[in-house]
């Protein structure tokens, strides 16, 4: 298989649909896939015709985690240099996605294991199928959830749930994942893409500069004191003003106060 086929993407109606595309390997993340994913993210990030990125999986899996043969065994055979290189490649695109210019939605159609929790967390929102199955299988083959995965579950979940998944390696389905708040919502698989389109449509109505600064703020302020966060948010809004050539916030106020053409409590202003 060529490097380019392990990730597929298309842009339609301002949504970039990016897919893990090794269905025959349950979309396990190999070094080849990790390198290609970084290229695809790079290609799409600043395109004017992309407003939202959706990360899905082809076939029965979202991602079966890191490729145990190509990511672990084969790189370990190359020694530390190989291991560190493959770690940089995977952590690199996870990080790129965490701080992506556009809002991102994980569309989890099936299996999501171990290292798959990295990109799951990187996506700003996550919608899954009731039929999806999530698991921290690391413990089943004798390791701890590394590569940031333990941090992901501790950040997203209460301690008992994080500990349960980590120590038992038991699977949970989509509805359990939603109840645990590992994802925003779970819907029947046949409704998954339609629901993701609806959520993307909500995001596409918003000011794109405000979306980028708001999503970064949500990720950043958790580690700050209240005073640090207050200060950071003032500065970030000022930076957002600088980066928004449309002066969206003034226009938003104008359409409400002067034009009375919309109500901010009920939806976005007309861009
Ligand atoms: N790494 C490498 N190869 C994989 C992986 C993986 N993570 N997951 C699946 N594959 C391969 C299988 O080896 C198999 O290859 P083959 O056709 O050449 O024999 C192919 O994908 C299909 O896998 P099956 O096991 O036959 O598919 P099935 O649908 O029966 O089971 C399941 C799917 C449950 C996902 C199973 O493949 C599995 O348990 N995979 C490993 C999941 C896992 O523990 N991932 C690692 C998490 S830890 C981490 O990411 C750090």
UniProtKB/TrEMBL annotation:
Record keywords, A-Z: Lyase
Molecular function, one GO term: feruloyl-CoA hydratase/lyase activity
One Pfam family recorded for the sequence: ECH_1
Enzyme Commission number, as recorded: 4.1.2.61
GO biological process: isoprenoid catabolic process
Record family assignment: Belongs to the enoyl-CoA hydratase/isomerase family.
Name of the molecule in the record: p-hydroxycinnamoyl CoA hydratase/lyase
Organism the protein comes from: Sphingomonas lycopersici
């Amino acid at each position: 298989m060529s490097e380019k086929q392990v990730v597929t993407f298309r842009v339609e109606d301002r949504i970039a649909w990016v897919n893990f595309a090794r269905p025959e390997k349950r979309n396990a993340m190999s070094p080849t896939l990790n390198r290609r994913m970084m290229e695809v993210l790079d290609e799409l990030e600043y395109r004017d015709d992309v407003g939202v990125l959706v990360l899905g999986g082809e076939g029965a899996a979202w991602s079966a985690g890191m490729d145990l043969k190509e990511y672990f065994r084969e790189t370990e055979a190359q020694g530390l240099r190989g291991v560190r290189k493959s770690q940089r490649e995977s952590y690199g695109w996870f990080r790129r996605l965490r701080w992506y210019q556009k809002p991102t939605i994980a569309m989890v159609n099936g299996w999501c294991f171990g290292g798959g929790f990295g990109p799951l967390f990187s996506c700003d929102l996550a919608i899954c199928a009731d039929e999806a199955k999530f698991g921290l299988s690391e413990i089943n083959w004798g390791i701890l959830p590394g590569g940031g995965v333990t941090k992901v579950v501790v950040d997203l979940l209460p301690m008992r749930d994080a500990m349960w998944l980590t120590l038992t390696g038991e699977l949970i389905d989509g509805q359990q994942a939603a109840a645990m708040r590992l994802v925003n919502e779970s819907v029947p698989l046949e409704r998954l893409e339609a629901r993701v389109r609806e959520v993307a449509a909500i995001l596409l109505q918003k000011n794109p500069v405000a979306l980028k600064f708001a999503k970064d703020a949500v990720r950043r302020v958790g580690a700050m004191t209240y005073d640090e966060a207050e200060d950071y948010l003032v500065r970030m809004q000022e930076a957002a003003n600088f980066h928004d050539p449309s002066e969206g916030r003034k226009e938003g106020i104008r359409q409400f106060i002067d034009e009375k053409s919309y109500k901010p409590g009920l939806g976005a202003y007309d861009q």
